[in-house]
Specification:
This protein is of the alpha/beta class and 270 residues long. The protein is 33% helix and 24% strand. The strands form 3 sheets. Strands 2-1-3-8-7-6 form a 6-stranded mixed β-sheet, with helices on both faces. It has a 3-stranded antiparallel β-sheet with strand order 9-11-10, covered by helices on one side. Strands 4-5 form a two-stranded antiparallel sheet. The protein is elongated and about 60 Å long.
Length: 270
Amino acid sequence: MPTANSPASNKVVTAALLVIGGKILSGRTKDQNIGYIAEYLTALGVDLKEVRVVGDDERAIVDALNALRHRYTYVFTTGGIGPTHSDITADCVARAFGVPIDPDPRALAILHEWVKTTGAEMNEARLRMTRIPKGADLILNKVSGAPGFWIDNVLVMAGVPSIMQAMLDEVAAKLKTGVRILSETVRADAREGDIGMQLGEIAKANPRSAAIRSSSRGPGPIRMWCCAPAMHRSSRRPNARSRTCWSECGEHNRMAKLRPLTAKTGVRVP
């Protein structure tokens, strides 16, 4: 699990997430991984720049993977590495890299041990999960045995949230990290339409130092937040209940020292 105090460079490290699965697109399965991965990578100092969702279609997966892996430092994929006929992610990754895919002795050993421990049957379906593209390293799976894999800058993980989270923990310490993006959230008794122009002016005045956004969950108060690689914070806090809070925040944002968020809880750390 990454911590907010782990060292980071001044470089920008980018990532994309490719979510694979017709069940996601049909609505039968509700994605629970995008937000988790985004928060996790942000805490590490990896800037998630793009998310794509594709179905269980070989051409779509290969095309998306090739587009993303040439554009970003890392590409994370979720879904499609299970035991069924529709789990084709590993084959698609092999095709994208132009390498063969075969049962991997390391994955076979892991799965044989898991079968022995659990009393499950080693069958053809489970053997599918030992097929790994040539040249890939394994991503260990402490939840259910069958590993993911890492080839070049592509990290292939399970779609089941608990397994994906375990795999992400396995690779976190090996990832290159860069500038950590820190954020502050302010609640205001105002509608977005009341302060939309002011927020735009602040964003325009700080084009490189901060990203300012707002969100509304209905007709009531909105939440506004500022994300920036800032390292200092003024002792004066803007009035969160004031309609002018963001004009105040704009004055002090250049000196903002924002404590990083922990990836799993969103709780600020000292």
